[in-house]
Q: What sequence folds into this?
């Protein structure tokens, strides 16, 4: 009996910044979202299945809306917890928020792009079995 390769989940693919079509190739050149010099660099195509990562000009404008949603809810909740949960002042809460934004900027940028391309490109299990 031959071993069948387990299909990677969409959640694993999105959060590990993998290609949406084969779920194996990397979406970004740099592995870490803390590498600010190569934060936005993406290969033109997936090294595994040759999926184009920039299908058309302006493709990732939709990712800005995803980023806005993530940031809006997360930051509102963070400031609310700081003010009402820890009884911090508004100024202190926003200083902490600014520090958090500086640290999480790269991850938010990448996760919103990853979600956007996964919404628009379908998984093809036949490609990952060939590789």
A:
């Amino acid at each position: 009996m031959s071993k069948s390769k387990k299909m990677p989940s969409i959640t694993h693919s999105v959060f590990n910044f993998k290609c949406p079509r084969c779920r194996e190739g990397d979406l970004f050149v740099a592995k870490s979202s803390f590498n600010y010099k190569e934060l936005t660099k993406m290969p033109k195509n997936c090294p595994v299945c040759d999926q184009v990562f920039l299908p058309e000009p302006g493709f990732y404008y939709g990712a800005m809306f995803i980023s806005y949603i993530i940031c809006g809810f997360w930051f509102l909740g963070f400031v609310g917890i700081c003010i009402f949960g820890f009884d911090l002042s508004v100024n202190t809460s926003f200083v902490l928020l600014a520090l958090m934004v500086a640290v999480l900027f790269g991850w938010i940028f990448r996760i919103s792009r990853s979600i956007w391309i996964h919404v628009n490109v379908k998984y093809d299990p036949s490609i990952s079995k060939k590789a």
